[in-house]
Amino acid sequence: MGSMANSDVQAAKRYHDGTKHSYASVTGSQHALDWTNQPQPFKTYRSLEPISLPRQIEPSSVPALDALAGREPDAESVQRLDFSTLAALLHFTAGITKIKRSAGGEIALRAAACTGALYHVEVYLACGSLAGLPAGLYHFAPYDPALRRLRAGDWRGALVEATGGEPAVAAAPVVLALTSTFWRNSWKYQARAYRHAFWDSGAMLANALACASTYGLSARILLGFADQALNRLLDIDSDREAAVALFALGRDGSSIPSPHGEPAALRYETEPLSPSEVDYPLIREMHVASSLETGAQVRAWRDGAAPRPRAPSAGPLIRLASLDGSERPADPIEAVIARRGSTRQFARLPISLAQLATMLDCATGVIPADFLRAGGGLLNDIYLIVHAVDGLASGSYVYHPEFRALELLREGDFRAQAGELDLGQELAADASVNMYMLCDLPAVLDRFGNRGYRAAQMEGGILGGRIYLGAYAQRLGATGLTFFDDDVTAFFGPHADGKAVMFLTAVGRSVRRGDKGSAA
Length: 520
Hints:
The chain is an alpha+beta fold. It has helices at residues 4-7, 10-18, 23-27, 64-67, 83-94, 156-162, 167-171, 182-189, 193-214, 227-234, 281-289, 295-303, 333-339, 353-364, 415-421, 426-430, 441-448, 451-473, 485-491; strands at residues 51-52, 96-102, 105-110, 121-127, 136-141, 146-152, 174-181, 219-222, 241-249, 317-319, 351-352, 380-386, 389-390, 395-400, 405-411, 433-439, 477-480, 500-508.
């Protein structure tokens, strides 16, 4: 399972319990936003020259709903990764897709949803020589958009070593590294921001997986890596910014050179995030407690993960069928990501059962990740509160992906309860359906140690991100919401007893100008 710290799962339990929302914790909080100290939304290197990325991006012909299915390209269809394709994937994973202007100024909205629109996840990449881009270690800056080279030469060997010889890394021409700059999110969300490090990187990885599938590129998400070795390579202070995931992109036959040795400290100056930063020890403690130290520990962690047994259904199943034929939207993933937002008001209008089935198919397609094994099932179960889905009784449900079926837990109109569960937000009450990701956290920690907490939260973010994209592909609306942890578990009880909530996405028909909705 890895390091001794990772094996002491009391750390994850302490963090999770210590960052739960309850009515008392929310109403009793004295936390207020200090707008004079709000962090900058971008990491900006003061002295590094930009390498401009190609701006012209041709849309693909692959429908977004097909890209979201999570299919690995076969050997004949694998494409060679070039600079322009890499630029497109970076843009649609972490780039700026629209500018929102208001009296308070401008917000550069990104390709993937992020808690509070605070955009704390940074993207780096290590690559061999690509046409138009020399081998190196780079930081992606979405505001230019451009790459900035941190280290010259091919550093992928260091990533192979840090991942314990992970084959996907050894074969990848490009490996992305995602980090979270904790303060940029904890400014608003305090210690709970560590959850968001994985929610928000998971949402970005949902985009990246869909783009990789569209472009015919193999991909694999990696949570197993030697933390300090990777953070040293990226030259980041892991108390303030830390690696949370790797993304091996593409596959070619070129050999990766051996590691260069210990990477030298770079000490490049960056613009300060804000006048002062507030430290949240719970974040640092949880990150250290879930860290791995060597490639050997990573291999043991990766190889020791047993498949998750599937729980049988207790009641009759409602089989689902996705949209097909002419009903199935053909918009490419680039168009869907470009128009995606976070819905601010739902119209209380119904969606169809086929639309819901299509989103669930999108969410639960194959996730190529080192914490999941083929046929082993997801870490999270999807629970639903259905308000307005044609052909489906209002009530609470659990989804069984292996059967593509819903199990009714309790029938009834739960709009009011849904709003109460989600911190009193009308969005949850007005949506057509709310989809919650819950996991058996003790079982996950038993399999993966504290690092399993990272995996469960990130998987929740990936599932939520795919639901977002599946909704917008069908021209529906979606938004991520937060929740009263234990109250959600109790609501879905006794079926969900002992489970922990990882993520929530609300879906419905967005209110548009002139659309007043209905009283449904």
